[in-house]
């Protein structure tokens, strides 16, 4: 009886009665934005979600462009976006499929990654001209298809072709199908811009051999190798940070180009570790 009375009394008082100060979570400013992009002979309207953390209105802040996988925008990007926003980094996640009327997946995406390089640099130009963004501290992070874009955007060849004077300050590529850069000429990963590149890979990725990403880096010229690091997550499959039900897809790029099935499976341990790695990497490179 006495215990019940005590609990009742405690529940009857609100936090203010005890002199407790409750701080409400400050959500970032969120804007749905559009930007023009020239893709081949087409002029497209690219849409995205720009999130700018609160409390930094008197200064320019860093930003990260987020590039989705073949499936399109899903839960993957948001895992990192929220963590980056919390430490004062703005984010822009763009929808590369919506502008083209595509549904995504290996059966309904552009024929080549290169078709969306224009999207990547259009978004960089957009961020560079925002009053709240520091144009010298804009990074890019992509997943699978977006990871390949992240890799190619770190090369002078494609940065010059699509970006003109604009360059990313840092790159993180998640499971970017590493075998392709040593085999397909159009994917040549060389003559880098000098911005740091982090490749995050799963040891059980069905697109690559377990050592494909490390072999890629080991084969770089010393002038390029100095800018690139690899982080492996043992036991992690492709799209380990897509925290949605396991999904088996068929892709011609799978199994080191032989094609076939690939399992996309969430791994919460690897997702947590890679999220922390992303935040640390960008904070370090942006000198925050």
UniProtKB/TrEMBL annotation:
SUPFAM superfamilies: alpha/beta-Hydrolases
InterPro entries linked to this entry: AB_hydrolase_fold, Dienelactn_hydro, FrsA_esterase
Start and end residues of each Dienelactone hydrolase domain: 58-283
Name of one Pfam family that matches: DLH
GO terms assigned for molecular function: hydrolase activity
Record-linked PANTHER family: DIENELACTONE HYDROLASE DOMAIN-CONTAINING PROTEIN-RELATED (PTHR22946), POLYKETIDE TRANSFERASE AF380 (PTHR22946:SF9)
Protein name: Dienelactone hydrolase family protein
């Amino acid at each position: 009886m006495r215990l019940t009375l005590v609990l009742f009394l405690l529940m009857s008082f609100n936090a203010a009665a005890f002199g407790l100060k409750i701080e409400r979570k400050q959500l970032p400013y969120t804007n749905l934005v559009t930007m023009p992009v020239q893709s081949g002979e087409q002029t497209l309207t690219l849409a995205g979600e720009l999130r700018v953390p609160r409390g930094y209105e008197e200064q320019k802040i860093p930003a990260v462009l987020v590039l989705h996988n073949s499936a399109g925008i899903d839960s993957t990007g948001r895992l990192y976006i929220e963590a980056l926003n919390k430490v004062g980094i703005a984010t822009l996640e763009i929808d590369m499929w919506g502008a083209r009327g595509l549904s995504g997946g290996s059966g309904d995406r552009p024929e080549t990654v290169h078709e969306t390089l224009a999207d990547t640099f259009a978004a960089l130009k957009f961020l560079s001209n925002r009053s709240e963004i520091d144009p010298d501290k804009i990074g890019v992070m992509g997943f699978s298809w977006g990871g390949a874009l992240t890799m190619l955007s770190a090369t002078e060849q494609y940065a010059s072709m699509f970006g003109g004077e604009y360059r990313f300050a840092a790159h993180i590529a998640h499971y970017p199908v590493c075998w392709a850069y040593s085999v397909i000429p159009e994917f040549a990963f060389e003559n880098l811009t000098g911005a740091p590149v982090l490749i995050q890979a799963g040891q059980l990725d069905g697109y690559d051999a377990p050592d494909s990403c490390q072999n890629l880096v080991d084969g770089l010229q010393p002038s390029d190798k100095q800018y690139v690091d690899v982080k492996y997550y043992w036991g992690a499959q492709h799209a380990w940070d897509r925290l949605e039900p396991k999904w088996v897809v068929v892709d011609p790029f799978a199994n080191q180009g032989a094609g076939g099935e690939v399992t996309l499976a969430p791994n919460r341990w690897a997702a947590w570790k890679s999220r922390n790695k992303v935040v640390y990497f960008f904070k370090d490179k942006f000198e925050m």
